[in-house]
Amino acid sequence: MNGPTPETQTYLAHLSRDHQHLRQELLRVASTLERLQDSEQLALAADQLAGLLDFLRRHFADEEEAGALVESRDYCPAVSAEVGRILAEHAELLRLLDRTVAQLRSHATLSAEYLEKIRRDFAQFCQRMEDHELAEKAVVARAFGAVPD
Ligand SMILES: [Fe+2]
Ligand SMILES: [Fe+2]
């Protein structure tokens, strides 16, 4: 293996930028959910989550079409099954987030218990996203020996 080509380096930089943005957004939404008390904040949380969902749809579509993951698979067939497994997680992650947006939008107010459930669900979602992005980082590193942040 000769290491990433300039085109792949561009993909790696793009992946790294998207992942940094994603981490910031997850923190921002988690902090909004923590502060949730009235219906105005409920609408804000739903809007932020919907924005995150849009971003993730684009990010996942990018990863599925071209980019560091697809390149990894083409460059190093040994990682093909792992890349397939990672890409297959996208639909489930989108479904989970979509469900939380719908839950927030379907209530004008939330009971403390329900709010706690939404916070727990989102914390679990953040953990799954983190595992997902770590798996991407690991597979790209395995294929190219290069690790995006
Ligand atoms: Fe992904
Ligand atoms: Fe990703």
Write the layout of secondary structure elements.
Layout: H1 6-35, H2 39-65, H3 68-75, H4 80-105, H5 112-144
Helix pairs in contact: 1-2, 1-5, 2-4, 3-5, 4-5
Net shape: elongated
Beta-strand segment tally: 0
User: Percentage of helical residues?
Assistant: over 70%
Class per helix and strand makeup: mainly alpha
The largest sheet is: none
- Provide the succession of SSEs: HHHHH
Query: What is the end-to-end distance?
Result: 21 Å
Whole-number total of structural domains:
1
What bound compounds does this protein have? Answer: fe (ii) ion
Average predicted confidence as pLDDT = 89
Report the portion of residues in β strands: under 5%
Using brief descriptors, characterize the structure shown.
149 residues; mainly alpha; 5 helices; 83% helix; elongated; binds fe (ii) ion
Describe the structure.
It contains 5 helices and no strands. The chain is mostly helical and 149 residues long. The chain has one domain. Helix 2 (39-65) packs antiparallel against helix 4 (80-105), helix 3 (68-75) packs parallel to helix 5 and helix 4 (80-105) packs antiparallel against helix 5 (112-144). The longest helix is centred in the C-terminal third of the chain and has 33 residues, at 112-144. The chain is elongated and about 55 Å long. One fe (ii) ion (FE2) binds at residues 19, 59, 63, 133, 136.
